[in-house]
Amino acid sequence: APVFAALKKILAAHAASLVVACDKPGDYKVNSTKVNPRNRQRYCVGRVCIGKNYVSFHLMPAYGMHHLISPALKKRMQGKACFNFTAIDEPLFAELADLTTRGCAAFKKLGYA
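Below the sequence we write its predicted structure tokens.
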């Protein structure tokens, strides 16, 4: 629960300019305000959810930002846009917060948010 709360706080800091699609215990998701013309769904920006063995932080803008991710944070990656944590790691959470800020700004600049 503390890991989820800390990661949710990172993503929720950007919720004012996004759409909160899900806010349940153990699951928090934010989408963009723009709708994808192909499927008429909002673009997913990020999600924090509690899994069986870890808490996952999904950040869709990370797909195009791998060059900004430190080797330490890359060790927490599963796939191209998911970071898994079992404990609070302040330095990595600070880096993730910065990456989230940059990613949300990039999404807006590209017209996705």
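The mean pLDDT is 93.
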